[in-house]
Each structure stands twice: as C-alpha cells, then as structure tokens.
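Morning. Coffee machine broken again, so started the prediction first thing and wrote up yesterday's gels while waiting. Chain of 909 residues, entered below exactly as on the submission form.
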Amino acid sequence: MLDNVSRGRIWLVERGREKGRKMMRMTATPVYTGGIMTGQGGSKMNESNQLGKSLLYVAVAATLAVSSPSAWSQQNSADDEVLEEVVTTGTRREGQSPTETLSPIDVLAGSALTDQATFDMTDGLTKIAPSLNTQRFPIADGTAFIRPVTLRNLSPDQTLVLVNGTRRHRSPLVNLQLAPLGTVNQGSQAVDFAAIPSLAIKRVEVLRDGASAQYGSDAIAGVVNIILNDANSGISVSAQTGEYFEGDGARTTLAANGGFRLGDNGFLNATIEHSTADTTSRGQQQGACGGIIAVVGPGVVPLNELCQRWGDPDVEVLKFFLNAGIDVNDSTELYATASYSDNDTVSDFFYRNPVLDPSAMISGRSTLIVDTDGDFIADPAPQGLVDDINAAGLNPGDYLTADAGSASGFILLNPIFSMFPGGYNPDFGAAISDLAFVVGARGETAGGLSWDVRGRVAESEADYTLSETINPSLGALSPTSFSPGKLTQEETGINADFVKSFDIGNLASPLNFAFGAEWRQETYKIAAGDTASISAGPAFIFGVGSDGFQGFPTESAGSFDSDSVGVYIDIEADVTDRFTIGAAVRYEDYDEFGDTTDGKLSGRFQFNDQFAIRATASTGFRAPTPGQVNTLNTTTSADTSGNLIPSGTYPVGSTVAMVLGSQPLVPEESTSFTLGLVASPLDNVSITLDYYDIEIDDRLALFTTTITAQNVIDLTAAGVPNAGLLLDGIANYFVNGFDSEVSGFDLAITADFDLSYGDLTVDLRHNQNEQDVPRVSAGTINASRVFDLENQVPDSRTTLTFDFDSGGAWNGHVRLNNYGSWKSTGGLFSPGDASDVSNYGSEVLVDLEGTYRFNEILSLSIGAENVFDVEPDLEGDGVLNFLGARTAITSPFGNNGGFWYARLAANFD
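Came back before lunch.
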C-alpha cells in the first residue's frame, strides 16, 4: 500500500522495526518518539549571565557525550534494528533523512506535543522548539483568541504551514493589537495552529530556511509541515486535567485517535478532541478602582474588585481531523484529509469608570458623561441637540438627563449611567469555526514519473460577540450585548506536482527533476455588525457604536479576492559521492500585485562519515493578503494617561486612509543565506550548527497616527460621515514600512545512552537571533516600534531535555527552558522616541513529567510545567501599571506561573 506521500513523490521509507521508544536514533537532526522535542531554536544572548547559562547547558551535554564509552548503546548490532525517518519537507528527493538534506530541518514527534501540560499545538510546538515562539496577550482583541506563532523572530505569516505537504489556510484574524502587545505579530494574518489536535499528528517537520522558490508565498522564514497519523489500526484515548498553582485556569482535555482499515488497501485515521480552559487573573487592582470602591462600596465594581483582569480567556473548543488513503491499483492512491474546529472564547476589555458624585473627584467614562471643564459635573446639553431629538419624534429623556439648571432643560449625562454604579468592563468573545478539505490522487507511471494532483477548499470564520457594554449614542435604550460582525477567510487551491529521476553523465546519483504548478484563491469577507453595534443614535455626542469594539459598518462589508498562479522547477543530485547540489526556480503571478521570480541554490559536502557542511542561498516573497489590504476594525485603546480613546484600522484604499496619506501595498521580498555543519563525532552523539542571515525589504507594518483638527476638516470634505467623532482618535492603516535583517544560529547537540536501568536521551537546543531594522520609510513606524522589533522578543532561547525510559513501567522527562532577557517600550503608551525602555531579565523554567504504565494498555502521567512557579519581572511601564498589569505583559513565557496536571491514557492495539 502506498504510504505518506508529500508534494507528489515522497514515500515514507521504513527500514527495520521500532525497538521500545527509540525509533529514530543518531541523525544529525534527531527524531524522538517519547515526549521530547527535536527542534532547534531561540534567540541571541547579549548578557554574561545568559551566556553562562547556555555554556553550562553545553557543558552538561558535552560531559555526557564523552563519558564512559561502555554506556553507549550499540546501534549497529544485529538485534537492534532501527526505524529510520525520512523527511518530506525542503526536498523532493525520495528517501532522505534529516542528516542528508541540503537545508536544516527539525523533526518533532507527535508524542512530544501530547506528553506535556497542554494539548494546544500553539503552546506545544513553542515549548519544545526554541526557534518557534508565541506569546499570550490579554486585552488584545482577536489576538487573545487566535494566537500567532513566529519562526526566528519574523512575522507569523512569513512562515508557510503545510499539512501532509499541502498548504494550510490562514485564520480570518488580521492581528491588529497595538504595541506593546506583540510588536512582531502586528499586522500579520497567519495559520491558527490551535485548530489542529495534537493527537492527530504523527510528526512535525520544521524547515528552517527560506523556501519561497520551492513552495511559494509566505515561506520567507521557513516551513512547518504537519504530517498526520496514518495508522490503520489501534485506538488511543486520553483524559488530561490540571490547573495553575494559583488555583485558577483549570484545563481539561479529552481526546481519542483511531485507525481503521478501508478495505484491504486503505486506511482511515480519525481524531477528536474536546478542551476547556478557565480564565486566569494575574493583574493588580486598576489605578482608579480603589477610589471608586471607597465611594460605591465593595461588591459593586466588576471582576472581584480588580475592575480589570489581566489573564487568559475562557475557552471551549472541539476539534476533529480525518486522514485517509486507499490504493486503487498497484501504482495509484486516492487520499483525503478533512478537519473541523469549533472554538468559543471570551475575554475582557479595559475598565470604564462610573459617574460618581462630583465630591469624589473621579472622572466618569466619556460614554456616560461629557465634562469639558473638568469639574466632574456634566456640561449643559446644547439646545440644538435637544431640538433635534424632539424633531425626530423622540424623547430627550431617553438620551440625556433632565436638569432644571440647564437652559435646555438637560445635561450631557447619559441616562444609562445608573445601570453601571461601579463602572463596566466589556466582555469580548468570538465563535471561531474552521473547516478544510483536501482530496487528491498520487502515484507513479510505468516510466518512473511520480505524480500528485490535489485540490483543497477551506473556510475559517470568526463571529465576534460583545457584552456588558453599551452603544452610548442610544442612551437608555441601548442594549448591553452586541454582534459586532463576522470575518471569514476562504481559500481554494489546486496543485499538480511531478518528479522524475534521470541518469545523466557522470553524476554519482540520478538527477531528481521535479516540476509543478499551483493555482490559489484567497477570499476575505467582512460581515457588518448588527444595527445596535454600528448605530449613530441621537446621543452621538457620547460616541457611536458598541463601546469597546465597534461593529463593522455596512460600507465595509464585502468579499475581497486575490488569485495567483505559480509554476516551479526543482532539481537535486549527487555530483560525487560526497558533494550534493540542488536548485529551484519559481514564477508566480498575482492578479493584484504582479509577478515575481524566485530561486534557491543549495549544496552539501560530506568530508567523511563524521562531518559534513551545507549551505543555501535563496530569494523569497510574501504578497499582502486580501485581509491585510481590506481589513477594517474600530476598537478602544488608552493614551499615555490611561484615558480610553477610539482606535480604528482602515483599508489601504479607504477614504480615511487615503486622506491620511496611504499608498498601494507591494509584496515583501527577501534574500536568505544559511551555512551549517553536521557532525557525528561518536556513534551516539550528533551536532548541528547552522548560521542564517535573512534580509527582508518592504515589510508590512501598521502605520499609526492621531487624527488632528485639520484631518477632520479634510475627512469631512472627502465625505466621511461623523468625521468629528474621530478627533484625537487613533487611525491605523497598512504600509510597506521598513526593511529588516535577521541573523543568528541554531545549535543542536544530542546524546543517546543505553544504561543498565533504561534508555536516556539528552537533547540540547539553542538559538541565537538578532533583528536589525536598517531602514524605515518616512512617516511610517516610529523609533519605539523599531526598538520593540529589535528587542521585544528575547534574542536567546535554550532548551535542555532529559528523556528517560526504563523499558518497563516507568518513563518521563525533565526539560529546562531558558528565555533570554528582553526590552520593551510602552508602545502605544510611549512618547514614540524609545526613551521609556523597560528591561526584563532572563529566566529558566523547569518542566517535569513522569509516567507509570500499569500494563500494555493503561498509563498514568503526572507532571508540572514551570515547576518552580517562575514569574517574569514586574511590568516597567507606568501606564500599564495603572491599568492593572503587575508583571511584564510582553513576557515570552506568559504570566500565569506554575501548572500541574495529570493524564490518564489507554492504548488498544
């Protein structure tokens, strides 16, 4: 039966059999099946203590590597057959192991994702592969729900994600959160890793090299290829639960995977997973909250008298994945994958002050009171406003508060204020659904031509919800729950890939010649919010639309398409027994951005059985998505004094953006170089070291400006309705804002021991990464944004894992994760000149897990993540402190502290 074919020609080659848990041993980029990562990653170190920690890790691994030769397992013995893994990513040549590839590739076993505290692939990948990073940002709009993953500190959508070698669709979320909440992620539209259940994954291949010439747009940083389980028998069931040491954030996951035969020559592998996660709270009391409690009394303000919560959202998600294939004859296989995810997530927004007696001297939220002279008393309502309400046949008392002391008989006090005696804190949520299908056929002709033709369709949808808030323009008639709109990402694609080997001249191997074509269409849809979320009611002086997240206006609704066609050629051959070369060229044409031609050259030289070098040079590109070109979003942010102000992101071609100076977007373009060595100094020691340098021009960024009085005049003249309400608000739109250069190296050292009491694998991974922004387009991003791009993600990351299997009842692992120091400005709360930098120190987090196998079926695992309950340093920005943030919100490892868990698993053959 034909097995896992990726990109139309790679067959999984199995040599030998699995012995225990050590399935893949002693490759230069090793693969393990037992809950341990096989990635490389991280960032650059610039502090002596960080360097010392990394040297300590290296020393530990080196000491183990040279100790007691008698302890090494004898791999070449006849009774110790090994299953050798071949990779399908970064090469279209059949049967290559990670040691033989021209580009650096990490292979992560699926069990490494399930044998830890979370089944969420977003967290799971980044815990075991230091070159991959994610952050958890509270109060970050949709980014609190769909968390992006970065590779080598580049934008999340500069990494191409594949599933079984086929492009995975993007999420509908364009990350619009403002700095300092995830500077690297801002403006990206990437894949939602969390929609993929970990139990469905056989392995993950991470190509850490530019690959646009091989795979197309987005592969600037590299490629993540998720290979699905294809077993045709066996059922695995798992139940896991745990909570943080603080006693909150309980997480429970129920998952099952089963393999089934389809006739005599086929398989169906199915996975289902249901997870829940409760909220966490790691902030402190919001700055104004204590004074308000002193007036209104305890139990009136929201969120347990904190007024505002900094922590994880409430999540419930159901995931389902199918992977199937069947041989129709000896040379052809039909295959398909299907996935579905349903995610309901709810988080919080900023706190809104209530209207109090003037003697309290606390300003009320502007949605509830207009007080231009700062005396804490509502201003008189203009007579014209009262007349307009009367003329419309409406009751002014529904929108204003009666006051005999005012000439008009009313004051600018929203009558709905009495509903919120302790203020209000909007709840922001989303119902996220994700659906994808891939259907294809592959095989090999009698002449030796391998072929793979497939089609895919996908849809990902985020339907937003908002509650515990108001549309202030509707006064006392405002609802408190809204449907602010829906975003949808649809994708369709057709791929045809072919591979043929040719005997040419005196080459040491046949020339592997691959070629193919791809057609893609992306569609981004915006559905308008409900009427209440977008209405400009009679009391528009208090603001319009749902407060916190204004509904998508009717004029922004629509469907926006982008089509592209690409063709490529990819060759690879052994020139001699020691020297291998490869080359790829790709031409791609976009209906909106024109065409591009990109190339890649690769080479590898094997000096002897213990040592080889490899190098690549490539160009790449990433075209702006329809979502980035057309996104529109209006929400609420805070200024440097903590005041809440409107913030809008507008399509590049919208009237607002063009009046403010927007220009059409162009694709990002890159040039990448890698140089690496592969070494096996001893039978059971492997070392890889890969240097990289990536230059990217015309990177997309969100340009942010404050709307001035002159802007209001210009916007009004251009026909923008209610332009006056935008005064002093924030306007954002996409620009090709800057160039960047990212350089660093990945180091991996692995040692494998066959001890008298079990098998021990020691795995050290380190990444050093530095980003420089050498050019910024005039009038785009400011010095604070540049500083954050260069410093907000730690420039070093190291993991050291000890994985032990007794061969009997016990196994487990200990993992140390070192996050280097980082720096950040206040972002939105910054003066913009990077004069407000806060410094945060490096930390080491320790994870533990132990498993007891009762029998061949049942096992129990108990573990802890961040077992010493390490927290990041205290938040250094004063405005964020006032808003309730206690520890650094830019922390690369979150703010929640330690987490314990227990997992009961059953495996049936």
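The radius of gyration is 29 Å. Going to sketch it on the whiteboard this afternoon.
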